[in-house]
Amino acid sequence: MTPWLGLVVLLGSWSLGHWGAEACTCSPSHPQDAFCNSDIVIRAKVVGKKLVKEGPFGTLVYTIKQMKMYRGFTKMPHVQYIHTEASESLCGLKLEVNKYQYLLTGRVYDGKMYTGLCNFVERWDQLTLSQRKGLNYRYHLGCNCKIKSCYYLPCFVTSKNECLWTDMLSNFGYPGYQSKHYACIRQKGGYCSWYRGWAPRTKASSMPQTP
Which cysteines are joined by disulfide bonds (predicted)? Predict the structure, then answer.
């Protein structure tokens, strides 16, 4: 199994709908889970790309200008290139050159960063203020919590470290209100609950845990 094909199997996150391909299927993931389960999380601008003969359809290698790193300091403190499958059917990611800044998540294999449609990748200007704050510190605080997906009713949490994620009920797995505005953070007493950030953490209002 190639590093990227292994990545597709192991790392489920959002497929970017406007970039997706029929054969690429990804499990939905809250941005906090994508953050906590990634080796690398950075904000960067793509400044170049080239196709190399690696894998069945080749590999796209993007040259990037790293603006900020949020996760991955010990694995790869500075990222200059990111690798992705050239074929969208294998979850290859298409990025614009010299146009946007992106939030990029990915894994490290053999000293290289790999990413794709099954990673959380978004234009920086499309992220909400809460998501940007999550990247800076809130998501990190919740990496010991578990975000439990709810696909159909009824849904319940089964332990104190779980937050119930219900975006799939109303948004079919695409980013919804909890994804855009909430982080799952451990509160006093050891319980994890949804936190938006309008009040001090100990006074935060929790999202409903049961429908």
Answer: 24-91, 26-118, 36-143, 145-192, 150-155, 163-184
The answer to whether the predicted template modeling score (pTM) of the entire model surpasses 0.90 is no
Q: Residues at the annotated binding site for Zn(2+)?
A: 24
Which residues, at least 6 apart from 31, have a Cβ–Cβ distance to it below 8 Å? 120, 131, 134, 139, 175, 179
Rounded alpha-carbon distances, angstroms, from residue 10 to 1, 20, 26, 167, 196: 12, 18, 10, 22, 29
Binding-site residue ranges: 24
Residue 130 clears pLDDT 70, i.e. is over it: yes
Residues in the chain: 211
Q: Which of 20-24, 30-34, 180-184, 198-202 has the lowest mean pLDDT?
A: 198-202
pLDDT of residue 94: 94
